[in-house]
Amino acid sequence: MKTIADKPFGEDHASFLKRFKLKVTPTDLKRLDMAYDVAKYGHRNQFRESGERYFEHVRGTAIILVDELEVYDVELVMSALLHDMLEDSFLLKGDRTEMIFGARVAYITATVSKPAKDDPRFSTAKQRLLFYHQQIKNGNWEVKLVKLADRLHNLRALMSCSLDKQRRKLAETKKTYLPLIRDISGEYSEAAEKLETAFRQAITQLQEVASQ
């Protein structure tokens, strides 16, 4: 199966949007264009542990949906681009996401976002994480699809992280996220099958490294 790792270097705004030119309406292409720009600006000056700019992650999550899972639903792709904005950027707070991108995108992005670290409902980080896991489980299949693409991209980037973090994320993936694949099979059976294969490959690779 083709993965985003097979893509040549040099992915940019134009090459991203080119994927959609014969697949979506001109209006939807403009909406994607705006989501891309908002995500890029919103994550400006943010970097991951590897040193890679953070925007590469959200764009990579969107590319998994399109290139690997063949999902061209514009609002799902926009949700992938914007999925970390509520947590990590000041641009899209409150009702802004719904006002600009619509209720469906607002719901997906809100549901895949963790509660704030200072949320008074939680006295420990574990409580907050367990609440978040349940929030994803209670979400619709669209939420789960975007979250699975997000987690798959993160798994593939774990090589640059400590072995302890790799082991923790592998355990969390197996316990919490892999079962979600079944939940999307009714709506996107082909995507579910491709996700099963992609996660199996990513997990096998990480397990080989973690066992060394």
Structural topology:
Elements: H1 13-18, H2 26-42, H3 55-68, H4 74-81, H5 85-88, H6 96-101, H7 103-111, H8 125-138, H9 141-156, H10 163-177, H11 180-184, H12 189-210
Q: How many angstroms does the end-to-end distance come to?
A: 27 Å
Count every beta strand, where a strand is a DSSP E run of 2 or more residues.
0
- Under CATH, the topology is which? Hypothetical protein af1432
CATH C-level name: Mainly Alpha
Poorly predicted runs are none
> If you average the pLDDT, what whole number results?
92
- Radius of gyration over alpha carbons? 17 Å
CATH homology group: Hypothetical protein af1432
Q: List the helices and strands in order.
A: HHHHHHHHHHHH
Shape descriptor = globular
Number of helices: 12
The portion of residues forming beta strands comes to: under 5%
